[in-house]
Write a structure and sequence with these properties.
single chain; 3-stranded antiparallel β-sheet
Amino acid sequence: MIFDDHGGRNRLLVVDIEWPEDSVYKDEWGVYGQPMCDKCKELSLDFSTIYADLHYILYETTSEESCFNGIRDHGREGMKLADFMKLKEVVEADLSEAMVVALLFYTSHSFHAINKALRANNKPHPLPATVMCINEGIKNLRVLDAESANATAVIELYRGFNDTQVTDEFKKLGGSEAAPMSTSTYLLVSCGYAVRMGETNGGLLMKIITNNNLQRGADLTFLSMFPGEAETLFPQLTFVQPTGRVQVIELK
């Protein structure tokens, strides 16, 4: 789109542009619909994907779609953002609309736009308000388990990493996740992320044992764009302490 001042009048001209194939960014998650600068590639700031996910959350009606990580909005067709705001969990946790949108956005395929900048310690973060609303939303959602039977229950969670090796330093001291930390109560879901597309150069699967609701993140199953992942999301800078128990599995 270009503006033309010809004749003293501003006009908006819409022009179809075909991007050269070698300028379109590709990675293990797919093909992005526009050329990107090196910094945007590094931080996964693809405008077309981010815009599509936000537009879907803000303005569209939920619909099921088969994706690599499950069926989008499985079992909840026909919902709009206003319907999410009426959910029992949203009301009880006093989530603002901004928190709901941010949490939904994180469960979409645009979550890398949040994580990569945090892990790279890129300042300022390109989406600072979204990060703030995610963290605040997680904190608010912890109230849901405070008076339930799960408040002091032992719950096992799993987290999968692709192309990851465990360092000796981590085995001794543990470490903190700079980004929000996604986990699942379903072992197979986390295995899928550890060995994505059946290929890996060293997958890591963490089994995280929690003893009460204050040690856990927020269960996003009721809200997640992919409810089949049974996602529990921890806030950023969550510390993980190793137990010393390690098992090595060779895939054949």
